[in-house]
Design a protein that fits this description.
Elements (H helix, E strand, L loop, with lengths): L14 H21 L3 H4 L2 E7 L2 E6 L2 H9 L1 H11 L6 E6 L16 H10 L7 H19 L1
Length: 147
C-alpha cells in the first residue's frame, strides 16, 4: 500500500489558496522592506519570510547582506509599524546564485571535434551505445551547420 505524503487533516480544504495567500503576504512584506530602504539596497532584497515574529530577509550576495545587517534596526522598525504581529528578530540570508538560460549557454562543438568523434565511432547497428553516439554526432553536426 502506498504512503500518503499529505494527510488530509494537515492541509486546509483550499491548500493552493493558502499557499497563494502566504506568497501574497510575503510579497507585501518585501514591498514594505524595499520601500524603507535606499534604492541601491532595495534592488538586492529578493524575498522575505516571517514566522512567529522572526523575519528572514533574503539577498543575492554576502556584500549586500552585510550592508543590510547595518540597517537591521530601521528594517525591523519599518516592519513593526506595518505588521500586526510584533517583530522580534531579523535574519539576513544569501540565496545561492541561480543560473539563467543566458548564462548556461553552451559553446557549440567544433567541427574538428565532431570529425574526430565520427571517426572514432564506427557504425555498428548491433551496439545501442554506438547507435546513440552516432545520432548525437549527427544532431550536433546539424546544429553547428544551422548556427
Amino acid at each position: 500500500m502506498f504512503k500518503q505524503p499529505f494527510k488530509k487533516n494537515l492541509l486546509p480544504s483550499g491548500g493552493l489558496q493558502q499557499i497563494q495567500k502566504n506568497l501574497n503576504a510575503q510579497r507585501k512584506l518585501l514591498d514594505i522592506v524595499k520601500n524603507g530602504l535606499p534604492e541601491n539596497l532595495a534592488a538586492h532584497c529578493l524575498h522575505v519570510t516571517t514566522k512567529s515574529g522572526k523575519v528572514t530577509l533574503f539577498t543575492d550576495s554576502s556584500v549586500w547582506a552585510s550592508k543590510l545587517l547595518y540597517l537591521r534596526k530601521p528594517i525591523m522598525d519599518t516592519l513593526s509599524l506595518n505588521c500586526s504581529a510584533p517583530i522580534r528578530s531579523l535574519k539576513i540570508k544569501v540565496l545561492s546564485k541561480q543560473i539563467t538560460k543566458s548564462q548556461a549557454k553552451l559553446k557549440p562543438a567544433t567541427s574538428s571535434a565532431l570529425k574526430f568523434l565520427a571517426q572514432a565511432n564506427e557504425i555498428d547497428t548491433s551496439d545501442p551505445l554506438k547507435v546513440a553516439m552516432n545520432k548525437l554526432i549527427t544532431t550536433l553536426q546539424k546544429n553547428n551547420s544551422s548556427s
